[in-house]
Amino acid sequence: MQSVADELEVKAGAARKAARTLANVNSDVKDRALRNIADGLRANQPEILEANARDISAGHDNGLAESFLDRLLLNPERLEAIAADVRSVAALPDPVGEVLDMRTMPNGLKIGKRRVPLGVIGVIYESRPNVTIDISALCLKSGNAVVLRGGSDAINSNTALAAVVKRAIAEAGLPGDAVQVMESTDRDLVGRMLKARGLIDLLIPRGGQDLIRRVAEEATMPAITGGVGVCHTYVDKAADTEMAISIVDNAKVSRPSVCNALDTVIVHSAIAPSFLPALARKWAEAGVQMRCDTRALSIVGAVRGVSAVAATPEDWDTEYLSLTAGVKVVDSLEEAMEHIQEHGSGHSEAIVSEDYTAAMRFMDEVDAAAVFINASTRFNDGGEFGLGAEVAISTNKMHARGPMGLKELTSYKWTVMGTGQVRS
Question: Among 57, 225, 250, 379, whose Cα sits 20 to 30 Å from the Cα of 202?
Answer without folding.
Answer: 379
